[in-house]
Amino acid sequence: MATKPAALQELESPETTPDVSLAGRDLCSVADLTTTELAGILSLAHDVKTNLAAYRWALDAKQMVMFFEKASLRTRLTFQTAMNTLGGSALFVDQTQSPLGERESLADIARNVERWVQIIVLRTYAHETITEMAQYASVPVINALSDLEHPCQAIADFMTLEERFGNLRGFNFTYVGDGNNVCHSLMLTAALLGAHCTVGAPKNYAPKADIVAQARAIANVTGSNITVMNDPVGAVTGADAIYTDICTSMGFEHEATKRAPIFKPYQVNETLMAHAAPSAVFMHCLPAHRNAEVTDAVLDGPQSVVFDQAENRMHAQKALLLMLLGCGKGRTNA
Ligand code: CP
Ligand code: NVA
Description:
Mean pLDDT is 95; it is low at 1-6. Helix 7 (151-165) packs across helix 14 (306-324) and helix 8 packs parallel to helix 9 (209-222). The protein has helices at 8-11, 18-21, 35-50, 74-85, 106-113, 127-136, 151-165, 181-193, 209-222, 232-236, 256-263, 270-273, 296-299, 306-324; strands spanning 63-68, 89-94, 119-123, 141-143, 172-176, 196-200, 226-229, 241-244, 281-284. It is 41% helix and 13% strand.
């Protein structure tokens, strides 16, 4: 299924409601979504979290397959629990030993799988593996993390922020650390919601220029600012949320020794947190490398919302599955 045009094309003029426009679509990038569609997913996620019984059989007999080239705890289990509790089934295929496309082409995998299941979830190294599968498969494809993006994470993270802070227009969101897949999706999500996003990253580890440009183009319409700098203290000063991730993502493990000293000044510790707003929260997608990118005191401290984020992965993905499978209209037995 072809991915719809970039977010900007529909940003200001959604012609249909999200439950209609998202039905049958892919989610390869956050930029596949309009502001209205993202707001629709978030709104449904809050309702599903509060009123699960009303959605209990909404995905009755639907089948989801997950092909994962990389390790996972949260993403795998939250997709499985999401699908199971809505009445559907989840199949897991471990691709960590043989990358997708090696045994047979992506097109042939798509032509088989679409005959058996209603939705495909992929965790890959190459982002193109996801966009190609989306191109070939007639059923929706979801990016469950690629080297470029982690959209499901970012949607759950901004759901977590909405729970705490309400409307996020003008919110000061700061990401400190590696300008990686998680950072990319967070920037795009912040831009779509009209939240300001500041990234503090070491030289040579900034987010990709084309993603920054994409986020800025969206932010120009929604009225927010996307700022990238090298200074960690400057980046977190006055922030309403400070987010970090491991400095060596999956696939970059061979760079761990080289990266450790470069990222040391970007560690989120109590001193860095003290520059944020007093009400600021600390966020991390997990898994965390304790006392590397974040100290125990911050990760386990009163400002940390990391396990709320982890819980919300499940609720946000329920909403996403409902929307893409054409069941996003509302409750089934309210
Ligand atoms: N945050 C996240 O995606 O965790 P996993 O790698 O365990 O799925
Ligand atoms: N940036 C990390 C996120 C893990 C959830 C990685 O890609 O390994």
